[in-house]
Amino acid sequence: MRTTRYEIRRRGFTLVEVIIATAILAFLMGVLYHVFWRSSSAWEKGDVRTRMYQSIRISLDVMSREIRCALISSGDSHLIFKGDKDALSYISASNKISKKGEFDLCEIGYSLSSHCELLRRIKACLDPSFGQGGATAVLADNVLGLSFLYYDGNTWQERWDSTRGTPHNTTDDALPQAVKITIVAQDEQCLEAPLSLSTIVTLPLSSYKL
């Protein structure tokens, strides 16, 4: 008996045709998934790096604004500027106490905790226990490194104590002319390489003492 074209079409696809079609569909789905995954991963990494950059930048801006207001006094043992390579404490006139723009002195300190947190300590009441007490808040998370350098007008120093003056003049109290702050941070999931940002803060009152 002769088979018509209509009867052939009614039989549907053969097993080989189904397997080939399935393989092609699976290949196309794999390609599309790979493209989507690459795009999504690139977007996520870019978003993580942007948020990490913003966090460090905000921290540097806060620290720069406060350090710029640092001051000392040769006649007042409370007004001190003391820092080493990974921590800094000083007296600043950046403590706003009223909506009229009035400011008062406060003690401010920065350090890095064992949990990779950049800490900011502020004490509104000055007392002999310099470098201790006050309220502590987290400026930034996932910070791998925090470092300070102090410029004396000639070279960068790793430590500074205003009560000991400068390496060239140890008899007078002195502020550094500038402070270089470096922060190294990485996202929590380690999707991106560590990001390092630095800034140099000049101290207008370095040549002026109360």
UniProtKB/TrEMBL annotation:
Cited Pfam families: N_methyl, T2SSJ
Domain of life: Bacteria
InterPro entries noted in UniProt: N_methyl_site (IPR012902), Pilin-like (IPR045584), T2SS_protein-GspJ (IPR010055), T2SS_protein_J (IPR051621)
Keyword annotations of the record: Cell inner membrane, Cell membrane, Membrane, Methylation, Transmembrane, Transmembrane helix
GO biological-process terms attached to the record: protein secretion by the type II secretion system
Topology in membrane: Single-pass membrane protein
GO cellular component: plasma membrane; type II protein secretion system complex
Transmembrane segments: 12-37
PROSITE patterns (alphabetical): PROKAR_NTER_METHYL (PS00409)
Record keyword Magnesium present: no
Subcellular localization: Cell inner membrane
Similarity comment: family membership: Belongs to the GSP J family.
The protein's name in its UniProt record: Type II secretion system protein J
Organism this protein belongs to: Aerophobetes bacterium
